[in-house]
């Protein structure tokens, strides 16, 4: 599915890219970055098409999605507070 088709499906559902990303627990930028690739991954295209079709037919999709237990993905790499890529960050004296 092209990014334009994806946006059309989100429009059917009455969702913006931001609202869609929040709904499925993705980073907003991750979803909008597909605009530059012009192609949306199949799993996101399927979700958008199903949500769009449900909304057009008057079936509330929000209750179905809310039944799915969402756990946030862990950040990739060794980064954590106070570290960048696993390495301890040094204090910078800016003054």
What's the SSE blueprint?
Blueprint (H helix, E strand, L loop, with lengths): L2 H11 L3 H8 L3 H5 L1 H4 L4 H15 L4 H6 L16 E2 L2 E2 L7
Antiparallel strand pairs: 1-2
Describe this structure in words.
This protein is mainly alpha-helical and 95 residues long. It has a domain at 3-62. The protein is built from six helices and two strands; from the N terminus they run H-H-H-H-H-H-E-E. The chain has a two-stranded antiparallel ribbon. Helix 1 runs parallel beside helix 5 (42-56). The mean pLDDT is 85.
Can you describe this structure in just a few lines?
By secondary structure, the chain is mainly alpha-helical. 52% of the residues lie in helices and 4% in strands.
Key features of this structure:
single chain; 95 residues; mainly alpha; two-stranded antiparallel ribbon; 6 helices; 52% helix
Mean pLDDT: 85
How many beta-strand runs? Answer: 2
* Element string (H = helix, E = strand): HHHHHHEE
Task: Report how far apart the termini are.
Answer: 51 Å
What is the strand content? under 5%
Rg, nearest Å: 18 Å
**Low-pLDDT segments:** none
């Amino acid at each position: 599915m092209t990014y334009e088709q994806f946006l059309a499906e989100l429009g059917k559902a009455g969702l913006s890219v931001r609202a869609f990303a929040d709904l499925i627990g993705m980073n907003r930028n991750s979803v909008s970055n597909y605009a530059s690739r012009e192609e949306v991954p199949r799993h996101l295209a399927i979700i958008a098409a199903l949500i769009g079709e449900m909304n057009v037919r008057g079936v509330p999709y929000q209750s179905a999605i809310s039944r799915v237990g969402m756990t946030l993905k862990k950040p990739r790499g060794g980064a954590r507070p106070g570290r960048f890529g696993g390495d301890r960050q040094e204090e910078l004296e800016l003054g």
